[in-house]
Amino acid sequence: MTQDASRTTEATCGMLEKLLSFALVLTRISAFFMFIPVFGWQIIPVQIKVAMTVSMAIFFSVIARCAIDPQQVSWLQAILLIVNEATYGLALGLVVTVMFSTVKFAGQTIEREMGLAMSEILDPLTGESCEVLGSLLEMIFVILFLSANGHHLFLLIFCRSYQAFPAGSIPTIAVLAGGVVQAGSTMLLAGLRLAAPMLAAFLVLMVALAVLARIVPEMDILFISFPLRIGLGLLMTAIFLPFLAGFVAEFADWMGKLVPL
């Protein structure tokens, strides 16, 4: 009886250890994939999201090591560990989402210069209202990103996060906040750099219209500028699209430097 009881206790402890490790991994994966683009979009059915999350949690719970001894963890400590894993996963997903918004930010900047800031459509991917040109550039970038096996980058980021911070250990809040702020700064700089040639073209157009207004004061410059700005914006966007493919490699390099936090 004593041996049977000890075996049962060992089996229970082993089960609780595996269950806690799986819960920690599942929490980080769920929080990460809740935020990141493509996988976190509303257009993907919930059943597929759940199946992907659980399958990857099973895989990573087998290969990823745990930084704590589950047998020495109380229920309160387990809850705090799960909250910490959720915080880390959300921070990773937020960094990826912010960096992924670079192309959309550049498109929105160009669209405002074209005078189309008030034109909005329903984004079929996220279910939210968005601007036309920004959504178009984002869709094209997503296609290029996935065609270059960009989804493997998400898995690589997650795998590196467990190499840097195993299950049960996460960076401090200051490190997480600093990583998110740095990602936002990089997104703004990269978005403005992408839109810089088109902004320069619009600046030249405004100077030309100003000179024309001085030469011909009777001309309605405001009325003439609308079709010129839209036409110039579409022309520059068409010229800009071939260079968008080269941004995918640069985007992957940024992600490798920013994450894991």
Q: Ends: how far apart?
A: 51 Å
DSSP strand tally = 2
- Secondary structural class: mainly alpha
SSE topology string: HHHHEEHHHHH
Radius of gyration over C-alpha positions, nearest whole angstrom? 25 Å
Q: Which stretches are low in confidence, meaning pLDDT under 50 for 5 or more residues running?
A: none
SS strand fraction: under 5%
Largest sheet report: 2 strands, antiparallel
Count of individual domains: 1
Mean pLDDT: 78
Total of DSSP H or I helical runs spanning 4+ residues: 9
Percent range of helical residues = over 70%
Order of strands across the biggest sheet?
Answer: 1-2
Tell me, briefly, the overall form: elongated
Description:
The structure is a single chain. The protein has 261 residues and is an all-alpha fold. The protein has one domain. The protein is built from 9 helices and 2 strands. It has helices at 2-35, 46-63, 75-100, 102-114, 132-147, 151-164, 173-215, 221-240, 244-258, and strands spanning 120-122, 129-131. A hairpin with a 6-residue loop joins strand 1 (120-122) and strand 2 (129-131). The mean pLDDT is 78.
Supply database-style keywords:
261 residues, 2 strands, mainly alpha, 9 helices, two-stranded antiparallel sheet
Short description:
With 261 residues, the chain is mainly α. The protein has helices spanning 2-35, 46-63, 75-100, 102-114, 132-147, 151-164, 173-215, 221-240, 244-258; strands spanning 120-122, 129-131.
Q: How does the SSE layout of this entry go?
A:
Layout: H1 2-35, H2 46-63, H3 75-100, H4 102-114, E1 120-122, E2 129-131, H5 132-147, H6 151-164, H7 173-215, H8 221-240, H9 244-258
Antiparallel strand pairs: 1-2
